[in-house]
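Problem 12. The chain below contains 214 residues. Write out its predicted structure in token notation.
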Amino acid sequence: MTIASAGDVTGKVAFAGTPPKGSPLQMTADPVCKKAHTKPVTGEDVVVNKNGTLRNVIVYVKSGLKGSFTAPKDKLVFDQMGCLYTPHVLSLMVGQELEVRNSDATLHNVHSLSKANPQFNNAQPMKGMKMTKTFAKEETFKVKCEVHPWMGAYIGVFNHPYHAVTGDDGSFTIKGLPAGEYTIEAWHEKYGTKTATVKVDASGKATVDFSYKS
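Solution.
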């Protein structure tokens, strides 16, 4: 693959309609959790940004790729901080290392509800504890903490590196995609999936946008 035959797919995920009002999370049962926040904290299942876009959407190539891909060597971090999972949604590649940390001075347990990959349920009772996980098969699954029932997050595992998660401006960039035609899919934990077809040509640039509504 040469630079001339690969490009970036960029876009935004819009939210149409009135943003839902999140309910405050009740953290009073654990003094460590309560002390970590000076203001009420709401759930992250639906986060609409100030510019009317949607956060925490995984955007990825669903079909059109050829060949196999090697997992990147960089390790991603999945933290428990302020009795919340950070980030709330992340994506990584099959075989890529995920470091799970506990940055809170309280007991957490990390329970995956994975189906294609073996489930795990590990306690991290002390601040600073770390463990490393890898996944062998593609899927998107939920992670929860039985100690703190409001804690939940999602992990997307892919057999290629062409995926991204929208942030505080609702944008995404899928880098280095070879020239060709692809089906791009967007996934949100509450609103489900949207698909679009995009063609990456010799110019090395393509744009695709998605929109969800409540």
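Discussion. DSSP finds one helix and 17 strands in the chain. Students who got a different answer should revisit the alignment rule from Section 12.3.
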